[in-house]
Specification:
Layout lengths: L57 H5 L5 H12 L5 H13 L2 H29 L1 H25 L3 H9 L7 H12 L4 H32 L4 H18 L23 H28 L6 H19 L8 H15 L1 H9 L3 H11 L3 H15 L5 H29 L2 H4 L1 H35 L1
Keywords: Membrane, Transmembrane, Transmembrane helix
Organism: Streptomyces siamensis
Protein name: MFS transporter
């Protein structure tokens, strides 16, 4: 699960007298560039081409950007628990109360609360800065997680579980904040930003692949609350490390007059695409668990789903090493089309063979189109979000994914219950086809809007 033209407006070119281009580094020494001075922390960035040394791959050049490694380490620590919390909550609540229905309802409530609260948290981040908002928001979410553990441990009424888990909705979108930093640091260098977005998507896949496995191990090996507690410790540690890297933080936009990202041209169809893509993820998870259970191998479902995430992770890293063939507006529908085409493979594998190993291979291949789709989509979000509201724009995209995951899970479960687990693989295929239709319609509207602008410019000229 997935991490997306040049983000934001291009900064005004610096004065040659005040900001000369640095001399090219000696190939023998290839020194790292000096870190920026505190006074220049929020100054417009020069193109990353003038700040990063030559490296063996685009990722070497990417992490030569001063401060990039430090905030990436903190962000990865904070992002890993995102794949742990829901699994830990289900294991903890179901084990204590004996009800998977209650556990599912509690986690669904937390998901719904996150969809409502996350854009507001992101708006505060844009206005006041990442460090000033992310740390207190994380502490509040951590209190919600601790309250959930205490309520489960002490046998509190069921309604307290819903209230406690809903309080965790203030958890900041650390992936979005990391992408916002890359967009700030790499202004004017779309190739480097493409590599950064590809890395972020691969990191998402890695965390959502390892998080559930780690949570299940901790809860099963030690005690049911261990996954939630360890996840909370990783989250606050990662956010503190991330927030401490102030030199790479985008400047806050306290008095921006930019409209909501939802109202920006091209954003509504893009957010609908994220909603449909989320339905792919949510339905695939439920249907695969049901299919594995029907084959008598329910415990293998996690490993099978991990293969899909692994395929996306590898594809994301490889995608970051190649230069996109054309602008993201044209590339995005093609990536969605590839995702829809490859999602026929799990359906065919389940229908024609009924073999779990064959299905696992089909999911591995099908996952390889997910990362390019998400990378190009996030690039478009960055380009179409008004300046000063970047965290909010990317959080809206994540909110769309979360809403789609919830809806896809419900639709997948409905088909599995009333038809079969094999037929359930038609749900992610239908969701991907819907995303393709929306993406194609959005591309047509964008092309018409661009042609209208060109015609208007020619008329005024």
């Amino acid at each position: 699960m997935p991490h997306q033209p040049a983000p934001g407006p291009t900064p005004a070119p610096p004065s040659p007298a005040l900001d000369p281009l640095p001399a090219p580094p000696s190939p023998a020494l290839d020194p790292l560039p000096a870190p920026p001075s505190p006074a220049a922390d929020h100054a417009p960035n020069r193109s990353a081409r003038t700040r990063t040394p030559r490296g063996r791959t685009p990722y070497h050049r990417l992490f030569a950007v001063p401060g990039a490694r430090a905030f990436t380490v903190g962000n990865l620590l904070a992002r890993l628990p995102m794949g742990m919390f829901s699994v830990s909550a289900v294991i903890m609540i179901a084990g204590s109360r004996g009800s998977y229905a209650l556990a599912g309802a509690v986690t669904a409530t937390g998901l719904a609360a996150t969809a409502v609260v996350a854009p507001w948290t992101a708006r505060l981040v844009d206005r006041h800065g990442q460090a000033r908002v992310a740390v207190p928001a994380t502490l509040f979410a951590l209190l919600g997680g601790i309250a959930l553990v205490l309520c489960v441990r002490c046998g509190a009424p069921d309604w307290t579980l819903f209230a406690a888990y809903a309080a965790t909705a203030t958890t900041p979108n650390t992936g979005g904040m990391s992408r916002a930093r890359w967009a700030h640091l790499l202004k004017g260098d779309p190739a480097a930003l493409h590599t950064a977005n590809s890395f972020e998507q691969a990191a998402d896949e890695l965390c959502f692949m390892l998080g559930p496995v780690l949570a299940a191990f901790l809860c099963g090996t030690f005690f049911p609350e261990a996954g939630t507690l360890v996840g909370g410790a990783l989250l606050i540690t990662g956010v503190l490390v991330f927030a401490a890297q102030r030199a790479t933080e985008p400047p806050p936009q306290r008095r921006t007059k930019a409209p909501s990202p939802v109202l920006s041209p091209g954003m509504p169809p893009l957010l609908l695409c994220f909603l449909a893509t989320g339905a792919v993820f949510g339905s695939m998870e439920v249907v695969t668990i049901a299919f594995a259970d029907a084959q008598g191998h329910k415990s293998a479902a996690g490993a099978v789903l991990a293969l899909q995430a692994a395929g996306s992770c590898v594809a994301g890293l490889l995608f970051g090493t190649v230069r996109p063939a054309g602008p993201a507006e044209r590339l995005f529908p093609r990536c969605v089309a590839a995702m829809a085409a490859l999602l026929t493979l799990p359906l065919l594998a389940a229908w024609l063979t009924g073999s779990l190993p064959v299905l696992a291979g089909a999911l591995l291949v099908a996952g390889m189109a997910t990362a390019p789709t998400m990378v190009t989509g996030m690039t478009l979000v960055q380009a179409r979000t008004p300046e000063g509201r970047l965290n909010e724009g990317m959080t809206l995209a994540v909110t769309g994914l979360l809403g789609g995951i919830a809806g896809g899970s419900a639709a997948g479960g409905w088909v599995v219950e009333r038809v079969s687990a094999t037929a359930g693989y038609g749900v992610p295929l239908a969701a991907a086809t819907t995303a393709l239709l929306i993406a194609a319609a959005g591309a047509v509207l964008h092309a018409r809007r661009a042609a209208h602008r060109r015609a208007g410019s020619a008329h005024h000229a």
